[in-house]
Amino acid sequence: FYENFCRSIGREDWLEHEQAGPEAHAAMIAAARDIFRTKTREAWFDLLNQTDQCAMRVLEPAEMANDPHVRAREMIVDLPHPTLGTVHQTGFAPKLSKTPGGFRNFAASTGQHTQDVLAGLGLSAADIEELRASGAIR
After folding, report:
1. Residue 49 — φ and ψ, nearest 5°?
2. What's the pLDDT tens digit per position in 58-77?
3. Is residue 85 within a helix (H) or strand (E), and if so which, with residue range?
4. Under a CB-based contact definition with an 8 Å cutoff, are residues 9 and 51 in contact?
5. Residue 77 contacts residue 88 (beta carbons within 8 Å)
6. Which of 57, 80, 111, 115 could form a disulfide with 138 if both were Cys (CB 3.0 to 4.6 A apart)?
């Protein structure tokens, strides 16, 4: 990997510094930053993918939602929300074959279960309505 990377960025001279100490690494990192500024993200991605490199674009949040790789791995999924329409939702990172993650439902809206909870605690419908009329609950 390191050899291919050095050759890809035109710094074969770095091959002799693979086992160098922290000072040399700091200088190499600074130089690599300057080198990476010479091409666009897409140009580097295309170049590195022509060699045996493990490379991926660093995406902006807006780009990530529609990236083919992210979508293929179901890291962003579109789900129908009851009031907002279709929303992007983060998928599950672990892809387990026997116990796959899944989406059950959205979080409850404010006050969605108030009636059921208070009734379960023994309050009458009249008591709950009185609390709602006073503004204590929604």
Report:
1. -75, -10
2. 899 889 888 998 999 999 99
3. strand 85-90
4. no
5. yes
6. 111
